[in-house]
Amino acid sequence: MKLSIKIKLEISPYAAAGIAAAACFFIIKKIRS
Fold first, then answer.
1. How far apart (Å, rounded) are the C-alpha atoms in residues 33 and 29?
2. How far is CA 1 from the centre of its chain?
3. What's the domain of life for this entry (predicted)?
4. CA distance 25 to 30
5. Nearest to 32 by CA among 7, 2, 24
6. How far apart are CA 26 and CA 31, in angstroms?
7. Which has more pLDDT, 26 or 2?
8. What is the DSSP letter of 6?
9. pLDDT at residue 11, rounded to an integer
10. How far apart are CA 30 and CA 15, in angstroms?
């Protein structure tokens, strides 16, 4: 149980950064087109 929570806390920042980057890319692409 503790191990899965630790893994989630380590992956979460990278997942959030990836989602934010994808959202920014989509918004920029939408504005330019």
1. 6
2. 23
3. Bacteria
4. 9
5. 24
6. 9
7. 26
8. H
9. 80
10. 22
Rounded distance between C-alpha atoms, residue 12 and residue 32, angstroms: 30
Residues in the chain: 33
Section 2-18 average pLDDT: 81
- Say which DSSP state 33 is in: -
Q: Quick one: DSSP state of residue 31?
A: H
pTM (two decimals):
0.54
Task: Decide: helix, strand or coil at residue 2.
Answer: helix
Distance CA 15, CA 9 (A): 10
How does DSSP assign 4-30, residue by residue?
Answer: HHHHHHHHHHHHHHHHHHHHHHHHHHH
Enclosing domain of residue 10: 1-33
